[in-house]
Amino acid sequence: MSLIVQKYGGTSVGSPDRIRNVARRVAKFRAQGHDIVVVVSAMSGETNRLISLAKEIQAQPDPRELDVMVSTGEQVTVALLSMALMELGVRAKSYTGGQVRVLTDSAYTKARILSIDEGNIRRDLESGHVVVVAGFQGVDMEGNITTLGRGGSDTTGVALAAALKADECQIYTDVDGVYTTDPRIEPKARKLKSITFEEMLEMASLGSKVLQIRSVEFAGKYRVRLRVLSSFEEEGEGTLITFEEEGDMEQPIISGIAFNRDEAKITVRGVPDKPGIAYQILGPVADANIEVDMIIQNVGEEGQTDFSFTVHKNDFEKALAILKGIQPHLEAKDVIGDEGIAKVSVVGVGMRSHVGVASQMFRTLAEEGINIQMISTSEIKISVVIDEKYLELAVRVLHKAFGLDREV
Ligand code: ASP
Ligand code: MG
User: Fold this and answer.
1) CA 151 to centroid of ligand 1, rounded, Å
2) What DSSP string runs through 56-125?
3) What does the pLDDT read at residue 298?
4) Rounded distance from Cα 168 to ligand 1 centre (Å)
5) For residue 227, what pLDDT is reported?
6) How many angstroms separate the alpha carbon of residue 153 from the centre of ligand 2?
7) Can you give the pLDDT at residue 232?
8) Fewer CB within 10 Å, N side or C side of the chain?
9) How many CB atoms are located within 10 Å of the residue 302 CB?
10) What is the pTM of this model?
């Protein structure tokens, strides 16, 4: 008998019928004798609906009130799933984040979990209940309701698994695992039996939206055994997220092609090429709590240089306004924004022991006439920024070039 945390996403609980399906699946595991904690998202579309509703009243909804509001989506599904379990004769009990006491910091709409008091859950498990916990939410020290950022139920699932020292955290979603790339762009994408944490982290951070990135970080840090599975298929092993040292001896060089359309580029043209300029440009951006991803500074020419960086599209207008505001102070010729970019990356731990991955990537893109605007690398990833209109082509040619369409 083991303790399993199962997380079901919005589509899996999108209707009463689907909620009944989830209940049947949970009941099946329960009948096998496992202790089960279930984490659920809001019904699909519900969080978006609540956010739009808030925006009808306040263009920029007050973050505290927004959290009070959007957290209700999950409150509905935990109760419904508990009822559905009871209908199957399974003892069940629902909890909001605050009732468990998922303690978070006070960063509304993107709070971080600080600790979980697992006493209530343990007691209910011991008395034979399935415990159903609302994902995506917690409370801060003062008892204010907080939420964990979009997709945050994954993080709730993993954090609970860590706190309870669960044997496995299973994330049930509408895809049946992690793929070599998005199958909607490359139909030949293959499901991976396993992927290492580090690769998954790169894939998630680059926009392969299977799991919320924080959940993967959490799982890596607390060594939670994490598996992604389909909530619509009865069978199937899904994709197991492994630790590199326990992985196969024969790791492929590249595990996947990730991409991201969520960034925009800002270029500051013709700034004096002198010490402190990068800080003068990025300092005010950081002070505004805007995360910068890729950064590039050109070779100076006649004492001047161009400086480009990318930010999330949500922060683009704000970052652009900041830089336009300090343009005279920077003595910059121009500040230009470009939202029509995309980032494509090849990811794989095998890169550590193989040379030539970058050159193969660049050659493949060059052969298609795709211009590279920015490049960044880490030990296990090479990313490039390209014109957004070539994104799909780039993904497909790279997928083929690295042999990802071949069965292994
Ligand atoms: N309901 C939240 C969202 O849509 C959290 C989640 O589904 O994980 O982002
Ligand atoms: Mg999700």
Assistant:
1) 4
2) HH-SS--HHHHHHHHTHHHHHHHHHHHHHHHHTT--EEEE-HHHHTEEE-S-TTS--EEEE--HHHHHHH
3) 85
4) 21
5) 94
6) 7
7) 82
8) N
9) 7
10) 0.80
**Mutation to probe ligand 1, out of 47, 148, 171 (largest number of atoms < 8 A from CB):** 47
* Residue showing tokens 């005279």: 328
CA of 227 to the centre of ligand 1 (A): 19
Closest ligand to C-alpha of residue 211 is 2
Q: Is 141 exposed, middle or buried (CB count within 10 Å of its CB: 0-12, 13-18, 19+)?
A: exposed
Both structure tokens of 91? 């003892």
pLDDT of residue 163: 96
Q: What is the token pair recorded at 349?
A: 């731990």
Six-digit token string for 262: 């969520």
In the chain the domains, ranked by start, together with CATH numbers, are 3-174 (3.40.1160.10)
Q: Of 314, 298, 229, nearest to 263 (Cα)?
A: 314
Helices (H), 207-337: 213-222, 277-287, 313-330
Query: Could you tell me which of 109, 220, 209, 88 has the C-alpha nearest to residue 162?
Result: 220
Which DSSP category does 274 fall into? -
In the three-class reduction of DSSP (H, G, I as helix; E, B as strand; rest coil), residue 329 is classed as helix
Helix (H) or strand (E) holding 385: strand 381-387
SS3 annotation, 204-231: HHCCCCCCCHHHHHHHHHHCCCEEEEEC
Instruction: Count H helices and E strands in the chain, helices first.
Output: 13, 20
Q: Which two tokens stand for residue 187?
A: 């139909």
Residues 270-298 as b/e (b if ≥16 CB within 10 A, e otherwise) read bbebeeebeebbbebbeeeebebbbebbe
Rounded Cα gap, residues 110 and 231, in angstroms: 26
In order along the chain (408 residues), what is the average pLDDT of each group of 10 residues? Answer: 95 96 96 97 98 97 98 98 98 98 97 96 97 98 97 96 96 87 91 90 72 87 92 85 69 88 95 92 95 90 92 96 96 96 95 91 98 94 97 97 87
